[in-house]
Amino acid sequence: MNVPIIDLKKQYEPLRSTIQKAIQDVLDKGTYVLGPEVEKLEKDLAHYCNIPYALGNSSGTDALLLALLTIEIEPEDEVITTPLSFFATAEVISFLKAKPVFVDIDPKTYCIDPAKIEAAITPKTKAIIPVHIFGHCADMDPILKIAKKHHLYVIEDACQAIGAEYKGRKTCSMGDFGCLSFYPSKNLGTYGDGGMLFAKNESHFISAREYRTHGEYPKTYQHKKIGMNARLSSIAAAILNVKFPHIDEWNQKRREKAQTYYALFEENNLLDKITLPQTASYAKHVYHLYVILSEYKNELIEYLEKEGIQTGNHFPIPLPHLDCFKNLNYHQGDFPVAEKTCAQSVALPLYPELTFEQQAYVVSKIKTFYQNK
Question: Does 168 lie in the same domain as 127?
Fold first, then answer.
């Protein structure tokens, strides 16, 4: 049996005619960048996330970058974040010549550990970027409390967590800014790149909108500041407008698949062999990735690949240990929880269209692997 880690064709098939019509409508109108499709998406997602302002842009990376530009991050400023995330979270900080400051993660949620944040704050600290990793919310209340005490901005990296909730509040609604990615593999993905920046403050929204389009809005060729080209295409937005009404249903199916995995692992007596993802009592998980921990990570990945099962290696190296951050002088052992998680994490196939038979096959092969250990 062949089990891909994600199958975007299965998601596309039932929406084929609606998506093709939406694309054709854009072509017929002749407006291909920003425009009414983007405005509709911004309005609908702002309402969904319960935050006043939304700004469609070119990627989740650029959403993060726009947030940092808007709060006027300068060289030598410090931004606290997690060592367990996609590279972009720390990349945008360094891109602006600021300094990413990493603190370890919580061993149950894999999100930044709030108890470790305050010790990392210095007079140069300007913001905190918690990441809702794998679809699980960071513990936001203590983070927001610390930020308020020290007058810091909070930028939620929710690029893997659209629809996830913290104590009934949607991701992107709690910090000063929220960031989404619409990369094709995301829970809500377009066909190409795309992102969304959310802001609570109108002046932040206006500033970010100017940065998005070369430092001016509307277009008058009288640029107020140095900006970037981070616009969202109309076709990308039109596709997202078709898919967005399904997001809660798709996320619920992901939760159901996660429960099925748990039942199958329990039935096959594997709960003492591997560590399954956990959900904190305050969180509503959306399982962008279903990540298990195995002390035989590389062997397990290789074995499953031979059996037709595709896995993901998210993420093999903690961010502060990457070559490009050597100048920060972090060392092995500085982030014991993140280091263990990276060394053992294996992402299993999980998406709304995954069948019970495929899940049972995955678990059966993992059982066979451990029988030989």
Answer: yes
Report how far Cα 371 is from the mean position of its chain's Cα atoms: 35
Residue 208 is part of which domain span?
Answer: 8-102+110-245
Instruction: Give tens-digit pLDDT for 313-333.
Output: 989 999 999 999 999 999 999
Q: Is residue 252 part of a domain?
A: yes
What digits encode the pLDDT tens for the residues 67-109? 999 999 999 999 999 999 999 999 999 999 999 999 999 999 9
Distance in angstroms (rounded) separating the CA atoms of residues 342 and 354:
25
User: CATH number, domain at 345?
Assistant: 3.90.1150.10
pLDDT tens string 19-56: 999 999 999 999 899 999 999 999 999 999 999 999 99
Q: Could you tell me if 184 and 190 are in contact, meaning their C-beta atoms sit under 8 angstroms apart?
A: yes
pTM: 0.95
Burial label for 22, CB within 10 Å (0-12, 13-18, 19+), is buried
Which of 84, 138, 112 minimizes the C-alpha distance to 280?
138
Does 93 lie in the same domain as 81? yes
Dihedral sign for Cα 217, 91, 199, 122, please.
Answer: negative
Given a contact cutoff of 8 angstroms between Cβ atoms, the answer to whether 128 and 81 are in contact is yes
Structure tokens at 55: 């700004």
Range in 219-228, 232-241, 285-294 the model is least confident about: 219-228
Q: What CATH number did the domain enclosing 67 receive?
A: 3.40.640.10
- Residue 75 tokens read as 């060289």
Q: Which of 3, 1, 11 is nearest to 253 (CA)?
A: 11
